[in-house]
Amino acid sequence: MTATRLDGKAAAAAIKTELAERVAVLRDRGVVPGIATVLVGADPASQLYVGMKHRESEAIGMNSIQVELPAESTQEEVEAVIDRLNADPTCHGYIVQLPLPKHIDTDRVLERIDPAKDADGLHPTNLGRLVLNVNAPITTPLPCTPRGVIELLLRNGYDLAGKNVVVVGRGVTIGRSIGLLLTRREINATVTLTHTGTTDLGSHLRQADVVVAAAGVKHIVRAEDVKPGAAVLDVGVTREVDPETGKNRVYGDVHPDVAEVAGLLSPNPGGVGPMTVALLMTNVVEAAERANDG
Fold first, then answer.
1. N or C, which end of the chain has less CB nearby within 10 Å?
2. Separation of alpha carbons 231 and 227, rounded Å
3. How far apart are CA 246 and CA 256, in angstroms?
4. Which of 16, 53, 117, 227 is catalytic?
5. Is 265 in contact with 258 (CB distance < 8 Å)?
6. How far apart are CA 107 and CA 138, in angstroms?
7. CB neighbours of 97 closer than 8 A, spacing ≥ 6?
8. Active site residue 242
9. Class of the CATH-defined domain 30-114
10. What tens digit of pLDDT does each residue of 95-149 get?
11. Model pTM?
12. Pick the catalytic residue: 97, 117, 118, 234?
């Protein structure tokens, strides 16, 4: 058996087509959804990532706002930008690209973001509201990558209700936040959160209908530990220097041999990554819709 590939690029393209229609409706009502990024310093990888977000946003008709600050900017200068974006009615959502320079208090910056404009969906206020809300419709930004994982499965016809989902990794971006979405009644999955300190990780994985691998540990999920036919989503990233070429190589958390055991497989790259960007834009469009309705 060879796993069916979950194509994140195709699903993300479908989401962006739908978003373009929603943006057009807003523009007809005089509202142009605005997405902003704050980049402190000139890290090449961050510059590429931010640039890609703006190109994709502009392609569906959104207003793109880029703020770039020198690496030596002070805490006060960064916070002044946050305050300006919070007050800017043309900006409906924004992100602060991480990592920030070491002299900047990252938590203080992120907590200063207006929760209504939290494009990443990871503001403490929004996560707290998600903790408290199991049944009612969501009216706050949602964590992008977890939402992308779930959306990728749903758009491929996978019913998560009653499924045993094992998450590997305890980071805020995915591991600690995805269970809040998966255990909402509308999804109704059962979630086990594991990590690098879990005793006998394989025993947990072998019970899983769905594995979400997000530990950032190369090939931590092995074929012998995956239940035949399970859905496996690789979200973790490890970068190593190739001794032959001297170039960086990217590895996921899932060993390639898992493709011979799993029923569905979201690879890395090409799987959840494109979904994260699509759901980031979704958060901003939804924020513009809420602001306009209000």
1. C
2. 9
3. 22
4. 53
5. yes
6. 25
7. 37, 38, 39, 40, 46, 49, 50
8. no
9. alpha beta
10. 999 989 999 999 999 999 999 999 999 999 999 999 999 999 999 999 999 999 9
11. 0.93
12. 97
